[in-house]
């Protein structure tokens, strides 16, 4: 009979070495502003909500904000939803926004990474600008976000909403509209900046349904540019390559009827 004391099974419930692939390490990316300043951000190693990428729409939004800083950003209150790494929010703060609030889905890793990126650029932000970070689910009440504004502005809302590469989530269109209606200041110069690339070109007609929905809900939509980038973000993806390199930009404002 075997000596039970010498019968070593090891840890039969332990997974063998290499059974699970290790989590990808975070990476870093740089956005070069037109002013010559560089915004460096950390990207999460991987994430189902794509927070591990620095999107073309985010870069293009940031350049557009620089080109129109006096009209859109300086001294304004800015909210970004679906911010991922948060480059447009950071650029807004650097450009002199009174308040910039960077938000994405309230996931611990995403929010912590946005806070990290805000810290990386803190030295570039002037003392008259405040940069905040929070989790926010589209369509949820916006009062926690309005609380970041100066007290006198909380009942009015944000001057600028940045919505870069969010409208590809077709089922979220009603929630995006809900957030716009709740967060955007009721003023003629208040703007929601919607910028996106059709990474799946065959779904572009569905993506574009966001704009008539916005018009049905009290907004006026203006297409402002169509910019073809040098490179695609996902080289091996199917679909029309030129469309996958194209960034579409829109400015959305309240209609006159909504402002009466």
UniProtKB/TrEMBL annotation:
Principal location listed in the UniProt entry: cytoplasm
Record bears the keyword Cytoplasm: yes
Keywords: Cytoplasm, Methyltransferase, S-adenosyl-L-methionine, Transferase
Full protein name: Protein N-terminal and lysine N-methyltransferase EFM7
Gene giving rise to this polypeptide: EFM7
Family as reported in the entry's similarity comment: Belongs to the class I-like SAM-binding methyltransferase superfamily. EFM7 family.
Region (Disordered): 1-26
KW Zinc (keyword) present: no
Residues reported in the UniProt entry to bind S-adenosyl-L-methionine: 55, 82-84, 104, 138, 164
GO CC annotation, single: cytoplasm
GO biological process, one term: methylation
UniProt function note: S-adenosyl-L-methionine-dependent protein methyltransferase that trimethylates the N-terminal glycine 'Gly-2' of elongation factor 1-alpha, before also catalyzing the mono- and dimethylation of 'Lys-3'.
Enzyme Commission numbers on file: 2.1.1.-
GO terms assigned for molecular function: N-terminal protein N-methyltransferase activity; protein-lysine N-methyltransferase activity
Compartment(s) of residence: Cytoplasm
């Amino acid at each position: 009979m075997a000596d039970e004391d010498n019968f070593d099974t090891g840890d039969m419930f332990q997974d063998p070495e290499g059974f699970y692939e290790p989590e990808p390490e975070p990476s870093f990316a740089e956005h070069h502003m037109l002013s010559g300043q560089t915004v460096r951000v950390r990207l999460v190693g991987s994430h189902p909500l794509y927070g591990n990428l620095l999107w073309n729409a985010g870069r293009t939004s940031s350049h557009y904000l620089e080109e129109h800083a006096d009209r859109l950003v300086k001294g304004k209150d800015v909210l970004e939803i679906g911010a991922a790494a948060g480059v447009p929010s950071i650029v807004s703060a650097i450009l002199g926004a009174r308040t910039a609030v960077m938000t994405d889905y309230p996931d611990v890793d995403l929010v912590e990474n946005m806070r990290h990126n805000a810290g990386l650029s803190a030295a570039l932000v002037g003392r008259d600008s405040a940069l905040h970070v929070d989790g926010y689910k589209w369509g949820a009440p916006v009062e926690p976000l309005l609380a970041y504004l100066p007290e006198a502005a909380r009942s009015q809302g944000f001057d600028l909403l940045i919505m870069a590469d969010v409208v590809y989530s077709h089922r979220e269109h009603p929630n995006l509209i809900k957030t716009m209606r709740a967060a955007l200041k009721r003023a003629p110069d208040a703007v929601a900046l919607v910028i996106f690339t059709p990474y799946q070109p065959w779904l572009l007609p569905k993506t574009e349904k966001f704009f008539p929905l916005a018009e049905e809900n009290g907004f006026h939509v203006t297409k402002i540019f169509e910019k073809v980038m040098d490179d695609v973000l996902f080289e091996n993806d199917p679909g029309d390559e030129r469309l996958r390199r194209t960034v579409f930009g829109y400015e959305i404002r309240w209609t006159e009827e909504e402002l009466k």
